[in-house]
Design goal:
It is built from one helix and nine strands, in the order βαββββββββ. By secondary structure, the protein is mainly beta. It has one domain. A hairpin with a 5-residue loop joins strand 5 and strand 6. The longest helix has 8 residues. The protein is globular.
Length: 119
């Protein structure tokens, strides 16, 4: 069975704030049909100081349901901030593990794998 995944900015205002920070949200890696789970890696690029809360974004699954990335803020930055032990530019969106808790701005990288994971 194939999955069709689409990332969409929930409020249109999100696009305006993304332009204001001079950053661009990119899909940098995709892994589908792998052992374990399917996931998509997101990266924020742009000038130093750009940031974007990706929590309002959602995934549209192949069966048509819209699933929010997180209920709590998950902020990506265009640079790797020295005050965090993980890379602030990346987040990994897992598409097949909904029972696990999201890693958010409040929790940080709880599994210590070097990036923020949302489920």
């Amino acid at each position: 069975m194939r999955r069709f995944i689409v990332f969409i900015a929930a409020p249109l205002i999100m696009l305006g704030s993304l332009q204001a920070t001079q950053g661009a949200l990119l899909i940098s890696e995709v892994a589908c049909g792998t052992t374990g789970d399917d996931w998509v890696e997101l990266r924020l690029t742009g000038e130093t100081g750009a940031e974007l809360n990706i929590a309002p974004l959602f995934v549209t699954m192949y069966y048509g349901a819209n699933e929010a990335l997180s209920t709590q803020p998950v902020t990506l930055y265009s640079h790797d901030r020295p005050e965090t032990p993980y890379d602030d530019r990346y987040a990994v969106v897992h598409l097949t593990r909904p029972a696990l808790a999201d890693e958010t701005d409040l929790t940080g990288d709880t599994n210590h794998n070097g990036s923020i994971d949302v489920y």
